[in-house]
């Protein structure tokens, strides 16, 4: 049981859960008024990008995968969040 | 339990060494083509959502205020926890600890099954309140994207049952099948993480 807790996968999960709660708190506190808030949006989108990266790398085991798979998945995360933030800021 | 878990960690290391410098593709390559294809298709939806949101911030912000952030956040943790047990189960199966792998996959299935259940608790009050895909563009995106995602979850639960059947079968379980099922389930998790940020959190 102790080694399950110390397992690197469990540590990644603890991190993912913590930032999920943190991003919900950011939305509740900073975004309570439901008005445009660039700080909240940037924070929650960056947190989502980090979470997607962590799940792909550690749970999907891409960190041990060939370069083409690492490059494709990281490229997707980077391009997606760059486009999302780009469209968001362009629309303000 | 301690020894078994440590054994599974060692097993991962061994298989990593065996995979050599070129790396190891977890599961069938065909699943990865599907995963990347799905990432691209959902990517178009996500960017499309952001584009149309930019045309009418007020509508999206006021509609967003009517969502249940609590259930959204709980469902995120539920999927992350399910993914953790799938990853732990995969490591155990690879290390030859089939009993541990089975326990972890059953746990993952239980968490995974909670997701659609919670979704019903979320959707039914919303639909009863008159919020449907026809309400406005935000709710159209909301129901279509979470609906397509829910179909992925349901398929993932079926796949997980097949993984469990594979682990229960006499003889050595087929590890590539376990990895393929795991890859699909984690993809479902990744897509939800983006949906959660776009639909519930951003302002």
Which descriptors would you attach to this protein?
heterodimer; A: about 90 residues; mainly alpha; 4 helices; flat; B: about 200 residues; Four Helix Bundle (Hemerythrin (Met), subunit A); about 85% helix
Whole-number total of structural domains of chain A: 1
CATH topology description of chain B? Four Helix Bundle (Hemerythrin (Met), subunit A)
Biggest sheet layout of chain B:
none
Beginning-to-end CA distance, first to last residue of chain B? 46 Å
The share of residues in extended strands of chain A comes to under 5%
Question: Sheet with the most strands of chain A?
Answer: none
Q: Quick check: average pLDDT of chain A?
A: 95
- Indicate the mean pLDDT of chain B: 92
CATH class membership of chain B: Mainly Alpha
Order of helix and strand elements from N to C terminus of chain B: HHHHHHH
Overall number of structural domains of chain B: 1
List the topology elements.
The complex is a heterodimer of chains A (92) and B (203).
Chain A: H1 2-6, H2 8-30, H3 38-59, H4 67-90
Chain B: H1 2-19, H2 29-55, H3 57-64, H4 69-94, H5 98-128, H6 137-168, H7 175-201
Helix pairs in contact in B: 1-4, 2-6, 2-7, 4-5, 4-7, 5-6, 6-7
Any overview of this molecule?
- The complex is a heterodimer of chains A (about 90) and B (about 200).
- By secondary structure, chain A is an all-alpha fold.
- Chain A has one domain.
- Chain A contains 4 helices and no strands.
- Chain A has helices spanning about 1-5, 10-30, 40-60, 65-90.
- The longest helix of chain A is centred in the last third of the chain and has 24 residues, at about 65-90.
- In chain A, about 35% of the residues are buried.
- Chain B is elongated.
- With about 200 residues, chain B is mostly helical.
- Chain B has one domain: Cytochrome c oxidase, subunit III, four-helix bundle (Four Helix Bundle (Hemerythrin (Met), subunit A)).
- Classes of the chains: A mainly alpha (about 90), B mainly alpha (about 200).
- At the A-B interface, helix 1, helix 2, helix 3 and helix 4 of A face helix 1, helix 2, helix 3, helix 4 and helix 7 of B.
């Amino acid at each position: 049981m102790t080694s399950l807790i110390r397992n690197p996968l469990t540590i990644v999960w603890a991190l993912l859960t913590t930032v999920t709660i943190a991003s919900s708190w950011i939305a509740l506190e900073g975004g309570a008024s439901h008005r445009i808030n660039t700080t909240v949006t940037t924070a929650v989108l960056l947190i989502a990008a980090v979470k997607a990266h962590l799940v792909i790398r550690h749970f999907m085991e891409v960190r041990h995968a060939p370069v083409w798979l690492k490059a494709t998945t990281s490229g997707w995360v980077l391009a997606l969040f760059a486009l999302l933030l780009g469209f968001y800021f362009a629309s303000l | 339990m301690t020894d078994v878990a440590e054994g599974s960690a060692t097993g991962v290391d061994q298989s990593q060494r065996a995979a050599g410098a070129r790396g190891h593709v977890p599961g069938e390559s065909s699943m990865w083509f599907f995963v990347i294809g799905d990432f691209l298709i959902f990517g178009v939806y996500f960017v499309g959502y952001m584009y149309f949101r930019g045309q009418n911030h007020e509508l999206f912000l006021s509609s967003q205020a009517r969502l249940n952030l609590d259930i959204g956040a709980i469902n995120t943790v539920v999927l992350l926890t399910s993914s953790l047990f799938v990853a732990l189960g995969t490591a155990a199966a690879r290390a030859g600890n089939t009993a541990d792998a089975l326990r972890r996959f059953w746990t993952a299935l239980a968490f995974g099954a909670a997701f659609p259940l919670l979704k019903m608790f979320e959707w039914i009050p919303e639909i009863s309140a008159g919020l449907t895909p026809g309400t406005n563009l935000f709710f159209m995106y909301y129901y279509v994207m979470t609906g397509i995602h829910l179909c992925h979850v349901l398929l993932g639960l079926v796949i997980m049952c097949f993984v469990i059947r594979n682990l229960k079968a006499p003889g050595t379980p087929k590890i590539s099948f376990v990895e393929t099922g795991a890859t699909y389930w984690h993809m479902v998790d990744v897509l939800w993480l983006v949906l959660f940020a776009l639909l519930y959190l951003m302002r």
